[in-house]
């Protein structure tokens, strides 16, 4: 029978608690830890350890330095005679620092990992017996681990399991070229840390002593910074933060790299510090934080392992993560956000009778720009007569999926041109993604996504993002996606949404509402979508609503939701074209600040060309003024909703006759609505 920790307070030590507190999960982790952290091994863990040909070990040498090591033997070399004991019928590899850490009473950490099944479990204990043939530990703590980031590999023996003599042993004080090459191509590493003994005598119950943990990613996920330093991203895991918690109390650590092709071991000891944020991390796909390791010394043990592993497949979680090279490329792309870049159309897919998806890839050698689900791309195309057409289109995919997909309805001059004149292999131009209609996939509050017609495009992006992040984080935000269309042949993404609904494993509910019933899928409702129908589709809960569709449709839904008592802050909406949603603020809203008066005249300087011209109110907005001077700034709605015309203001002040739906960033102006302001706007400079 499993034995839980016999404690009623927090089962985590002070370092782990500090990390939990920092991330706002302390209360949740107390209950979880008390349920899953045991003081004895469950039966399945005992049998699992007994079938392994190797285990990882974390130890501390006589100088207090942690090391990560490998113990090897034919399956059965580890025996569990009971829930509280493990017997190891093997000794450390000659030259491995683990030998210095094996002593009666030593607190060690172990990780059993089976690469071909992606199973892993960890156990911590203290040495109770030691002889020439092996050693035994009494179990202090037993924890099951998830299969995330473990690459699939099949093992074979290349020599007798008892032959553990390395074919060469080299001491290192820095990372030479060979060590750096191994690290740069690695997709797996193991880190050993140690929490020092506590004065409260609760060491065993709170996981004090050495520990060893697995880290995985795609090759290039470890960044060499110099010959003594490398940086490792920290991805979403089980939220225990045993490694990072140990580092809060003791910065010493050991790192092990295994060359699965040659059996070489690179084992290092040094110090590690947690990096909690920064621009570099923001650009790394999947990285929540990182840790920087500084090498003090190490060993290279050549062909130390009698095992070899053949790569089989990537962990599905690893494929959702990036590399440092990709992160740097994304940072470079972010610097090009205001530059028109060429994109090649790689594929065109008809999603319905009137909506067509254009799949794009950069044609300038730079990376795909980072974006948030729901954002749009300002696009321009040149007609046969040389006319430049501008429009913004929502990116209808998740940020982690690679590439860009624009799903466009045939309506209007620009969209019709794309449908009729742009083919696979063609090139269009676009600025960097922008938009404030986004979703937080980490929230637990259920999200209701309502898309009518082509308004389904941001909802598809939202749903794909939430489901993908749910897989990555093992917790999916509940979704209700309500798709409204006139008829089945006009409904886009039907099969895609059905597949996505299945992938969500119950976290997503797909509802289809059609005005015309012919050819409707099973379970579809007869439109139009009304509040009464909405109440039958949704359970009573504190939902957050996301609306996108024709202006009248959105206004009616918004007004109805507000009449039902849904707070304005719980209703997000994306408007197309010049129409704007008329909102009713929550509570007693403060009177809006009156806009500053417009200048009677102003000198406007265009920074990139160096030209200057005199503006007067008769010239209209700054967008109209720039167009009148022969410039072609990006735009779409011309009403302050989409942000496509946001431009950097380097000098002067502007004003707006009416508040804009889009909130420009500091130092930016919306050209489509802005005019020079009196009292500081008589001389302005625009980054055009």
TrEMBL record:
Residues 338-440 form the FAD-binding FR-type domain. InterPro entries: 2Fe-2S_ferredoxin-like_sf (IPR036010), 2Fe-2S_ferredoxin-type (IPR001041), 2Fe2S_fd_BS (IPR006058), Beta-grasp_dom_sf (IPR012675), Cbr1-like_FAD-bd_dom (IPR008333), FAD-bd_FR_type (IPR017927), FNR_nucleotide-bd (IPR039261), OxRdtase_FAD/NAD-bd (IPR001433). Residues 602-688 form the 2Fe-2S ferredoxin-type domain. GO terms for molecular function: 2 iron, 2 sulfur cluster binding; oxidoreductase activity. Transmembrane segments: none annotated. Gene3D superfamilies: 3.10.20.30, Electron Transport, Fmn-binding Protein, Chain A (2.30.110.10), Nucleotide-binding domain of ferredoxin-NADP reductase (FNR) module (3.40.50.80), Translation factors (2.40.30.10). Residues 576-600 are annotated as: Disordered. It holds the Pfam family PNPOx_N. This is FAD-binding oxidoreductase.
